[in-house]
Amino acid sequence: MTFRRALRLITKTGRVAEPAPPPPEPLPARPAELAGSVQIRHVDCGSCNGCEIEIANAFGPVYDVERYGARLVASPRHADVVLATGVVTRNMLDPLRRTIDATPRPRLVIALGDCARNGGMFTGAYGVVGAVTDVVDVDLEIPGCPPEPEAIVSALRRVTGR
Amino acid sequence: MRLDAAVLAVTQVVVMVVLTPLLIGLMRQVRSRLEGRAGAGIAQPWRDVRKLLAKEVLKAPGTSWVQATGPVVLVASSLVLCALIPLVGTVAFPLIPDDLFVVVGVLLIGTVALALVGLDAGSAFGGMGSSRHMTIAALVEPTVLVAIYALSVPIGSSALSQIVDSRMQSPASIAAPVSLLALVALAIAVIAETSRMPVDNPSTHLELTMVHEAMTLESSGRDLAWLELGSWLRLAALLGLIGALVLPWGLATEITPLTLLIGVVAVTIKLAILGAVLATVEVFLAKLRLFRVPELLAGSFVLALLAVTASYLTVQA
Predict the structure, then answer these.
(1) Burial status of residue B156 (CB atoms within 10 A of its CB: 0-12, 13-18, 19 or more)
(2) Which of B46, B150, B157, B267 would bridge B182 by S-S if both were Cys, CB 3.0 to 4.6 A apart?
(3) DSSP B89
(4) What does the alpha-carbon distance between residue A36 and residue A33 come to, in Å, rounded to a whole number?
């Protein structure tokens, strides 16, 4: 993209972030250390990629969950929250547990989407161990198949408290 | 004189530690706004650091004492850098010169500490980041040296405070060809040294393209907080150096409460302007292919070399 095209795009688009809805009730079990700043490591345990698209939307310019202090990071050691999506497949059971172990305390585990909460349409399927809630301790669940970006933003705001 | 210099050094360190996270926040905010986002606010890096300091430190199996000492060395070297570079004023210690070779040496201590932290955990990405970081450092340090050396030739001293002092007294020298060439070379070198676009993407999640981030992947809690703060301080100090060379006004030449206050306000404004400009330029840039980075850095070295040649010619003429 040329400089001029990029400049025109920036000036024409302006601000696309939607106005912030009123803050939701903070999570009662939320560690006080995480106030205002939450780094998130996303683990795809066997998702169909629907939840991933909605996560990308929540972190995109329109919903912009980064404005509330949440940020996706590249390493579990930088993270405060493990965001698990999808049913847990046999191959991802160990990586999920190790990712959670590699996350420094205080940490939270969020199960995002119906598959992560109860197995959804993949319950009992071949190669599936169970839902995320079956194999690890989960602090917060986000229902939906896939959850809307508003629901993801609202859940993450309950953790950041902003 | 010595007390003056000590007061100035302490002021510079305190001011920079307070300002630096806000500068990073400002740069992220500018970028967010240009991307159409709302942005997390300029205090977000402070919240991140505060949270990291309160978190547990997890060590990967097989890591050594380097994992804990490396980040502290990086922060310490960055703080020394903040104390040495004339940011608020130009009163230097008589025995610890703010010589350009000292500054580049201190810069390199931080670079090596960071690279060792990357190597320590023995992970593939950490080693890759360290090797890239050292490759870039090897190309950048000569450019920083030669670029500032070009500015030191007319003055006959390589002390940064004297270079800045002389530019304050004769502002015409700022727009001279020698100075412009040297500043462009220095700016490219600083961008590469501090892992900004187009050499490294500070907000990437792709391990294969990382340089700086790859080295911090195995650090957590306090260690990560020091690594982040140390790297930010380096960026702020080097931006402050460019600020002092381009706009040498407002710096305190003698230490009184009033001149210090003016110096602090001036450095805040300079950092804010330079940070906003850097963040704006970055929005328009894509990351360079790693194999193209040496070409960019060789270009900046050539500019620095031209600056040195030109400055010798002008001195003799």
Answers:
(1) exposed
(2) B150
(3) B
(4) 9
- Is the distance from CB of B10 to CB of B103 less than 8 angstroms? no
Q: How far apart are CA B151 and CA B158, in angstroms?
A: 8
Least Cα distance to B240 among B232, B175, B26 occurs for B232
Q: Residue ranges of the domains in chain B?
A: 2-316
Instruction: Report yes or no: B231 at the A interface, CB cutoff 8 Å.
Output: no
pLDDT tens-digit series, residues B207-264 = 788 888 889 989 988 999 999 999 999 999 999 999 999 988 888 888 888 988 999 9
CA-nearest of B87, B43, B41 to B274 is: B87
Q: Which residues of B46-83 are buried (b: 16+ CB within 10 A; e: fewer)?
A: bbbbbbbebbebbbbeebeebbbbbbebbbbbbbbbbb
* Cβ neighbours of residue B69 closer than 8 Å, sequence gap 6 or more: B113
Q: How far apart are the first and last CA of chain A?
A: 36
Q: What is the ipTM of this complex?
A: 0.90
**Taking each helix axis from N to C terminus, what angle separates B293-316 and B124-152, rounded to the nearest 10 degrees?**
10
Task: Decide: A159 and A152 in contact? Cβ < 8 Å.
Answer: no
Q: How many CA atoms does the CB half-sphere of B182 hold within 13 Å? A: 28
Classify residue B84 as left (phi > 0), alpha (psi -120 to 50) or beta: alpha
Distance CA B169, CA A156 (A): 54
Collapsing DSSP to helix, strand or coil, B228 comes out as helix
pLDDT, one tens digit per residue, over A95-154 is: 999 999 999 989 999 999 999 999 888 988 899 999 999 999 999 999 999 999 999 999
Contact A78 B216 (CB under 8 A): yes
| Cα gap A130→A111, rounded to integer Å | 13
Other residues' Cβ atoms within 10 Å of the Cβ of residue A70: 28
The answer regarding whether domain A31-160 maps to CATH 1.10.1740.10 reads no
Q: Is A81 exposed, middle or buried (0-12, 13-18, 19+ CB in 10 A)?
A: buried
Is the CB of A61 less than 8 angstroms away from the CB of B37? yes
How far is B48 from chain A, CA to nearest CA, in Å?
A: 6
CA B220 to chain CA mean position, Å: 23
Q: Give the whole-angstrom CA distance, residue B125 versus residue B217.
A: 8
Q: Which residue has the higher pLDDT, B246 or B315?
A: B246
DSSP state of B197: T
- Return the residue of A nearest to B280 by Cα: A7
Nearest to B58 among A10, A36, A104 (CB): A104
Confidence (pLDDT) at B1? 54
A33 has a chain B CB within 8 A of its CB: yes
